[in-house]
């Protein structure tokens, strides 16, 4: 399959609604969720943490427990012609992979131990099986395609395989979750760290191809659940806003990144008005972890104030926002993960009180 660049408008991408419901109909403003990996080596401990640390339970991935749970390695499980080494290195048989090889996903594999522990923890607490909303995350096809290209595949073969692998992964996990949690809506988030301003330095990469790859993978989610795209770092806002996901998940922008998103305030407003939401990564995880929520709160307040000054409606922005750590916690410790989630809860509570307080000032 050759992925030719196509030209679409935002409205032709994945709809932000599921069965006529918008994300805002299911995700409460100021909710919290996990993002990326957890540092636990004990899958049962990780599952217990995932069920209790955020208001939206988030399936854990545990790359410290096993490199097989790294996001690239996990997406490649069961693909003929691909091997993942003990430490996460990718080996490819280019002669096999230039063909349309079968793509299967075995949830009994070591790569999904964190998921299985999460399911078992739900079975032990029957009330959890009736949870109304779950969030889970896997690597997106753009990031996976770039990894496969660097392992020796041609651009066309890498893009084709990445799209098929992610779609198969989404369907397999989604269907299993539907069996275990029959009434839950799912927020399925594709992790695209490559979706930044440097992506177009890559040969044979265009904004059209990036949008087509990611939106093509999101289409596998169908109409019963909600789609999301997560990107850490220097986000390419025009591309991110063109994908059409129900949710965008980004670190709270500062500096140049905040100036960049402010230039697209009208497009951001359009997304929110259609029922989409933003998961703001309010707690930085890429360096020393703050001891108090003050810095995180200040960055969020500054970002919201500038967006409102750029034309985003204050009430629309506030009521269509929820919160997460900025990125995964896999490089930290179990204790740091607990601390980060505590800070996250404090920021979410403060935001809710500020917005609903009669003393709240315009802008935020």
What attributes does this structure have?
two-stranded antiparallel ribbon, 6-stranded parallel beta sheet, 10 strands, 364 residues, alpha/beta, TIM Barrel, disordered N terminus
Outline the structure in words.
The chain contains 15 helices and ten strands. It is an alpha/beta fold and 364 residues long. Strands 5-6-7-8-9-10 form a six-stranded parallel sheet. α2 packs across α5. The termini are far apart. The model is unreliable at 1-14 and 358-363 (pLDDT under 50).
Could you give a short description of this structure?
Helices cover 43% and strands 13% of the residues. With 364 residues, it is α/β, with parallel strands linked by helices. The strands form three sheets. The protein has a six-stranded parallel β-sheet with strand order 5-6-7-8-9-10. It has a two-stranded antiparallel ribbon with strand order 1-2. The protein has a two-stranded antiparallel sheet with strand order 3-4.
Structural class: alpha/beta
| Radius of gyration using CA atoms only | 20 Å
The first-level CATH class is given as Alpha Beta
- Helix and strand run: EEHHHEEHHHEHHEHEHEHHEHHEH
For the record, the CATH architecture stands as Alpha-Beta Barrel
| Oligomerization status of the protein chains | single chain
Strand proportion: 5-15%
CATH topology: TIM Barrel
Mind describing the biggest β-sheet?
Answer: 6 strands, parallel
Number of strands: 10
The rounded distance between the terminal residues' Cα atoms is 49 Å
Spatially, the strands of the biggest sheet line up as 5-6-7-8-9-10
The overall number of domains is 1
Low-confidence stretches: 1-14, 358-363
Please count the helical segments: 15
Helix content range of the residues, please?
40-55%
Mean pLDDT: 89
